Amino acid sequence: MPGSPYLEERPKGLLTWPVLIGRVAPFALIGVGLSVWADVLFEVLVVMTGALFLTAWLRR
Q1: CA distance 32 to 57
Q2: Does the pLDDT of residue 1 top 60, yes or no?
């Protein structure tokens, strides 16, 4: 990895942004798509925002 602080490869179990986005994005897109189909987009976005806020607040 160019510019990486690791000598060989990233340490096993380290969660990086590309890995995190690859795991979360499909589920988020499916959830938003289903909420548009069920006409509950606002409620789903409020729940997602609340979950992200709560996670950030608990990890501070």
Answers
A1: 24
A2: no
Instruction: Read off the pLDDT of residues 35-49 as tens digits, 9 standing for 90 and up.
Output: 999 999 999 999 999
CA angle, 41 then 45 then 47, to 5°: 120
- The letter for the amino acid at 41 is L
Residue with tokens 């990086």: 16
What CA–CA distances, in Å, run from 40 to 15, 17, 31, 33? Answer: 31, 29, 10, 10
- Looking up tokens 């990486």 gives 4
Tokens representing residue 11 in the block: 């340490």
Q: What's the mean per-residue pLDDT of the chain?
A: 87
